[in-house]
Amino acid sequence: MSDVMAQAKLNMNFLSQAITGTQQLRSTVTNVFNLLCEGVKPDEEEDGKGDDAETAVTVGKDGKKFLQRFQEYLEAVNKDYNEVEKMCNNMTSMTDLPVLGPSGALSLDSIADKNSTYRDAVLTYQWNNRLHEYAQIATSLMLTNQIKRSQLQAGAGAKRRRAAPPKFTNLPSQTVDNTLQTLSRQLSDTTMKILQASGDTRIVHLAVGRVFVVIIVLRSLTIEKVLVKGLDENIILENNTVDLFSDSQYLCMQKITDHAMSAVLQYSTYQASPPEFPLKYLLYWLQSYKSLFTDACTVCGKHLDNGLPPLWRDFKIPVPCHDSCRA
Amino acid sequence: MGVTYICQWKQPEGQNIQQSIEQISSCVEKLGAKKAGLFQVECESFNAPNAPNAKTLHLIYDSEFPASRFALFEEGSFLVTDVMLSAFLSKLRAVWQPKKGGKIDCKGQRYELGDFLIKLGVVSVGASAKGISVELEYAPCVYARDCWGMMSEMLQSIIGEQAPPSLPSNLQPKGTERFSPELTMQQYVEMFNNIRKTVVAR
Prior knowledge:
Keywords (chain B): Activator, Nucleus, Transcription, Transcription regulation
Distance between the termini of chain B: 36 Å
Helix content of chain A: 40-55%
Protein name (chain B): Mediator of RNA polymerase II transcription subunit 20
CATH superfamily of chain B: Hypothetical Protein Pfu-838710-001
Strand order of the largest sheet of chain B: 1-8-7-6-2-3-4-5
Pfam family, one (chain B): Med20
InterPro entries (chain B): Mediator_Med20
Largest interface: A-B, 21 and 21 residues
Main location (chain B): nucleus
Oligomer: heterodimer
Structural class of chain B: alpha+beta
Strand content of chain A: 5-15%
């Protein structure tokens, strides 16, 4: 820091000397022009009046006197000029100033004194630099302490997630119907029927054992929405449409709806080759709820936790477990 | 309307009704239940003195079903009607006459815990308190056999040793029938009859 200050001080000295030198140079140059303006004095010959040195050489002996003075002045100019040039070479450029590109020109604008655009720009630039620095440090720290939820490589995981487009939306209607029929035959203790179908969209009603009913909205075979309701709740509105939006009045059914939506997200990311796999997994997972009210939690061995039955089922091995008991 | 279990709380020796109610309420609140208003169940009994084989008729009003009245005959027939039934019965005064001392009611606090509904009530005949009722309802399930494990666990934590060890016979509908308000009203009538008997026996 002190080096920079000393450098700046030195530069200031050179600068003031250079200014003095420049003033000196200006005065000597002015002398030259004054002499030329005056020209040869009246007692000298008329021809010596020219404003050029060559013309003065051709005049008589009085002209020689004029020429001599002129030469003296020019030498003074030359000397001063050399002095200024030396000063300029001594000065070093300020390398530690922020490089702001064309915005540096803002500092030259006199109006900028009123609106502090340049000052703000410099401050912003400094903050930006600092931010960049911190981000780099943070990145290096985080890279040394990675937290991964899966065994996959970070890059591979990101790639895979991006590579899950809605690719099965263009299946023929007959295929979808057949798939749904096949799936409903495979499930035990569960009845499935299609409530409404319009174009690609189907609303499927699924009764799981004696526990609850599920409304599933399918677009082709892609699951759009899952809604779990109690057995004695209305699912058909007065105008004969299916109620897709009102939550169940029971707390446990609301929580199962939330779990079911996360199950949908989980199963949709599976790299399943056949298009019906996410739906199939979801149906099997929902089927595991048929013992919701009868089974106790596999972890704590109790039925109730804060007034709620074991609501959680793992996405891979669907065993009953309380929300608070899951590891 | 989910599965409902109703029982009478047997007071320990030397404890009055107020103390018992406070004890159970604090127990329920410790479980994490929140207060959710009041409830009331009224039962009025009628008999037909002119018809020798006629059974007693119980007319029940429950604040959970404000627009309905339940008529229950002693032998088991059950009827759900609208609020005009009591006015209609007064028109039939020549046949059905109110039983003497047949009016009994149960009032108290409602609690909610998850999907459970817990009601603690004081049963009184006229102005005198005769006993304490504990009602537990689990709303999402409509089959008593399925959710009995959960209900039993909850009852254990509320009334302790007085909880029934296995599914009571009056909670088991025939076959695989769903639970209905009828079974709730039957339990109320049974409990009221028991309380009346014990009062008479004293």
